[in-house]
Amino acid sequence: MSGPETDLNYNWVLIQELRDFMDKWNSEFKNEPIIPMKADYLAERSIQDNIVLESSQNSLIVVISYAMMFLYVSIAIGFFPNKIHMKFGLGAVGILVVIFSLFGGIGLTFYWNEKLTMISAEVVPFLILAIGVDNMFLISRAEREIPESITSVEERIGFAMKEIGPSIFTAALCESLAFFIGLATDVPALQNFCLVAGLGVVVDFFLQMTIFVGALAIDNKRIWLVAPTLSAAATRSLSLSLAARSACAPATKSTAVPVLFNPVTKIAIMGITACFVIIGGMSCEKLLLGLNQNVSLVENSDTYDYFETLYLYGEAGPPAYIVFKDVDYTNTENLSNMNLIASELASLNDTVLAPIYSWVGAFQNYIKPREVWDEACGSSEVSTLGFDQQMARFVQIKIESDCCQSYGVCGEQYAQDVIFDDTGRVTTSRFRFQHQVQKTQEDYIKGLVETRKACDMYIDLLTTYPESVIDSGKLESQRFAIQMDVPAPASYMRKFTNYMGITEPQMLKAEEKEDEAPSVFSYSLYYVYYDQYTYIRGVLFQNVFLALGAIIVTMQVLASLGTALIVAICVFLTFFELMGLCWLFNVVIGGYPIEMNAVLVVNLVTSIGFGVEFCNHIAMNFMRQQGNREQRAIKAMN
Question: pTM value?
Fold first, then answer.
């Protein structure tokens, strides 16, 4: 049986009944052929079960990654295989610092009553690990480069931090600000990731500057105390380790750096960069929107099989609605425009399955006096009433009545499509329709966009009731909401100001209206999940440019404007070219494509953090060197 096997309550009674039936069949009907049948299902708990299974698998990957990084740091940060200088203890402290940083960021997120999303849980551990390990090597290398004439451990650590500390501080400040600015976006998954990542970077910086630097000092004191007692074999082992370590630096200086700064290489790099920039520009439109469910599901799980079967054999499109809110139905032009919306929807043959179930046409016939159905429907009497009374009688026309059966004026089928308030006023109504069969992400998004466009074509032509009428109709519901005392979800800024004891000013009337639904809008259950794809590209670039602005401002203060602009350009190219490579990967490799969704946006924003981490250190090292620009660049790379 596929699916999670632990901590889940399966219907074992049903399973046992199925097994008993199979045993009975095999014993009593041995010669009867059995037609094999496979049933794929999706239950209310299926998605959560799949998340549990996926989380257990990913947790193992994270643990293995951290264990391998511990071995790498312990070996590379010291002088393997020398027993005294291997620094396994320092490596363990460094990995613990990274783990505590991760727990600190997540803990602060929980403190602010924010849940941890799966995207954050899967991406942030590797982000913090990469940044933390990089800082460990930078601090350790800076300490090793201090002249041996300085023997005091405290002084060596002090000089090392004077050399590398500003660079680490600048990188941490730029990264944290770039992530915190992401809280201003409208994608909840991106907001949560930026909050956890930003807090993790801040906590990691403080722990690196305190715990890891302290552990480095203690480890150096241990080496200074043990060094005088080294045997000849231990001294020879240390000399071999130092020789092996120092052999890499001349190879880099004599081979890699000259090749990198060769005029031909420079031209080639500029050409390759230009090609990747063009590919990145193409990816802005070429990357498909959406998130294929099976990409994020555990392969061969029950949920995975269900979506595979639905894709192959599903032949029913999702139901959808056009909702009209507070429209002035007494205005005949509004009813005509509502009919035009229904006609526009019916023409969307690619995404909408006709007919459109609209009450407007039947209602308009119902209130027309002196027609052939007048006697059967009572239209002459109804035409003298107000709209609300007319509608109340219209929805009571039974389907089996002579008015409906003989003349097609039916109202009972629309009874659930018209909402009356406590005063009997019609506040909301809807049209019903069904989408065409939708199999791909493109189909779902196209269905949402086209129905929304059909509404937007006429939204400015529909007039609403006067404010006084709408406000009086809302009074009862507002009283109910006050009695229930259900608070509205608070924004991050609202939570912060509440925590600081700051009272936010009252919202203006116009600002309140922005949070309300428009007078007409389309709705289907899947729209809730696919609405983000109508603006996710804009959110991505908004977040990137805000992050670049934070980088420029921060580095301009701590370094120089020219350095800040160069670093910002390099970071942007890292992000932009990575996005282009995602599209190129789709073209070359195929299979399940990389799509533009919240997962990709989070990973692209993560590339901003990595870009800052590496570009900043090279730029800060460049500023400390002497000579012309090329000489300083060569020294910075060495």
Answer: 0.74
